[in-house]
Design a protein that fits this description.
The protein contains 14 helices and 25 strands. The strands form six sheets. It has an eight-stranded parallel beta sheet with strand order 1-10-8-6-2-3-4-5. An eight-stranded mixed beta sheet has the order 14-13-12-11-15-20-24-25, sandwiched between helices. Strands 17-16-23 form a three-stranded mixed beta sheet, with helices on one face. It is an alpha/beta fold and 425 residues long. It has two domains: 169 residues, Glutaconate Coenzyme A-transferase; 236 residues, Glutaconate Coenzyme A-transferase (3-Layer(aba) Sandwich), CATH 3.40.1080.20.
Length: 425
């Protein structure tokens, strides 16, 4: 049944929301900030409404004490949410990205009552492009009881399967505002060294998946001498630079040749302009981009992800410091699993060898800190890279993989790691 696509003001649109509802937001650069600001303004009326979202590029305004009537559920925790979590207003949902599209849609445990999206203006046929953020918002919006679209002329109209028709939207709010931006992070000497080691493991013709942060930035900067690469799932400014230099062509992909399969774009206006009506872009939901079976069909798929800590058995946590949740599972498990089944594929966990103040802690440890969540299990461990080199642990015995990992740990901690290994043997 067609919906109304009624044009109204942000205030009147948010009046359609009710206390206790679950309301999903697009993550990253796709967040409809004018609508979110209006939800905050009406927070007292909307008591116990739960906003649902992932990576957020601002300061979580809905989690401030003055908006304590609101709740938040997220699959990507942030230290900036700790105060609200201590007040009992934040729930962390430990789901990998591929499962978000079912649990946050009709029939799922977190099925939203409403979805707020940000789109480009409708085209001549009435289709609204979700532009930079398709991953979770699109499948949720296609089945939600209420869909409110912030229609923004600054949102790029992206090619692919990231669209809603006006007949699928209840309310339209026309807002001309700058998109939230993700500027390129600063790369230091450690990140640059890691990026160089990782780039050396990427073959020409590979399909490359990276996340956000300084190490992924360094990896992309280190790939400038490669040929016929493709990018998968996420596009950032540094990826656009590789396309412009002719490094990324997607010319050797088994399917969707010449196109980048993306669920999110996080960058500046440079990325947004690149995305607009570009035939080389294929926007898809995470039901496609994060499906390990789809990933496995892509030859030479190289998954490059980060970690907070890895132990000598190969267990990885990318989301917690001990029992304290500071990030999320994200797509790491999806891509590591898919890469393990890809012909010529590889999974790379890249991390600095030390952490803490002045590098006082080793990030390669005998055992994960008590309470730490395992993001990638040891049986999927493949390559581990630090600024001190690359260690391939796939297929090695427990002692051999521990020895290989110690070799890429910081020299200051290698002795105690060797003693811990000897004690455990």
């Amino acid at each position: 049944m067609a919906r109304g696509f009624v044009t109204t003001s942000p205030s009147e649109a948010v009046q359609r929301l009710a206390p206790g509802m679950k309301v999903l937001l697009p993550p990253g650069c796709g967040e409809p900030r004018a609508l979110v600001a209006e939800v905050c303004r009406q927070s007292e009326r909307l008591r116990d409404l739960t906003l649902i979202g992932g990576i957020h590029l601002g300061d979580f305004p809905w989690a401030r004490p003055e908006h304590a009537a609101l709740r938040y559920a997220t699959w990507h925790m942030s230290p900036r949410l700790e105060d609200a979590r201590r007040r009992g207003r934040v729930d962390f949902v430990p789901l990998r990205y591929f499962d978000l599209v079912t649990e946050f849609a009709r029939g799922g445990r977190w099925a939203p009552d409403a979805v707020l999206v940000q789109t480009a203006p409708p085209d001549a046929r009435g289709y609204l492009s979700l532009g930079v953020s398709v991953s979770v918002a699109l499948p949720a919006a296609r089945t939600a009881p209420l869909v409110i679209a912030q229609v923004n002329p600054r949102m790029p109209r992206a090619r692919g399967n990231g669209v809603l028709h006006t007949s699928q939207v209840d309310v339209c709010v026309e807002v001309d505002e700058a998109l939230a931006e993700y500027p390129p992070p600063v790369v230091g000497d450690v990140e640059r060294a890691i990026g160089g080691h990782v780039a050396a493991l990427v073959p020409d013709g590979a399909v490359v998946q990276v996340g956000v942060g300084a190490i992924p930035q360094a990896v992309l900067e280190g790939l400038g001498g490669h040929r016929d690469l493709a990018l998968h799932s996420l596009l950032v400014d540094a990826g656009v630079a590789l396309v412009e230099r002719g490094v990324v062509t997607a010319a050797r992909k088994r399917f969707h040749r010449g196109r980048l399969d993306l669920a999110e774009a996080m960058g500046t206006r440079r990325t947004f302009d690149f995305l607009h009506d570009n035939v080389a872009v294929n926007m898809e939901s995470s039901a496609f981009t994060h499906d390990p079976e789809v990933v496995a069909r892509l030859d030479r798929f190289v998954a490059i992800n980060s970690a907070l800590e890895i132990d000598l058995t190969g267990q990885v946590t990318a989301e917690s410091l001990g029992a304290r949740q500071v990030a999320g599972i994200g797509g790491q498990f999806d891509f590591v699993l898919g890469a393990s089944r890809s012909a010529g594929g590889a999974s790379i966990i890249a991390l600095p060898s030390t952490g803490g103040r002045d590098g006082a802690l080793s990030r390669i440890v005998p055992r994960l800190t008590t309470g730490a969540a395992v993001t990638t299990p040891r049986f999927l461990a493949d390559w581990v890279v630090t600024e001190h080199g690359a260690a391939r642990v796939r297929g090695l015995s427990d002692r051999a993989r521990a020895t290989a990992l110690i070799a890429v740990a910081h020299p200051r901690f290698q002795g105690e790691l060797e003693r811990a290994l000897a004690t455990s043997s």
